[in-house]
Amino acid sequence: MLELRPSCECCDRDLPPGATDAMICSFECTFCQTCALSRLGGRCPNCGGELVARPRRPDARLAKNPASTRRVFKPEGCRSAPD
Asked: What separation in angstroms does the CA of 22 have from each of 72, 83?
């Protein structure tokens, strides 16, 4: 099950479970759409994987399966994805 992390790793912007602009890679690294597309070129800076729209969990399921509260923030900021 996806963690649904609560923030962008790059700019620390809040990304609640229902956010339509959250993007993830296959390792669940999470970024806002602005950082993912403008700063990272659609590639995860951690693994080089493709960043895609994060699915939204239906509200009725969030009570039993809540989103993560673990924030991941890279103080060094965003960098280009590895080759």
From this structure: 14, 23
Tokens describing residue 5: 């992390």
- Dump pLDDT digits (tens) for 11-32: 999 999 999 999 999 999 999 9
SS3 call for 55: coil
Domains and CATH numbers, the chain: 1-59 (3.30.40)
Task: Tell me the C-alpha to C-alpha distance, in Å, between residue 77 and each of 11, 46, 50.
Answer: 7, 12, 19
Map tokens 């039993």 to a residue. 64
* Per-residue tokens: 30: 């999470």
Kindly list the distances between the CA atom of residue 45 and the CA atoms of 56, 60, 64, 77, in Å, as whole numbers in the listed order: 23, 33, 32, 10
Quickly state the pLDDT bin for 83 (edges 50, 70, 90). low
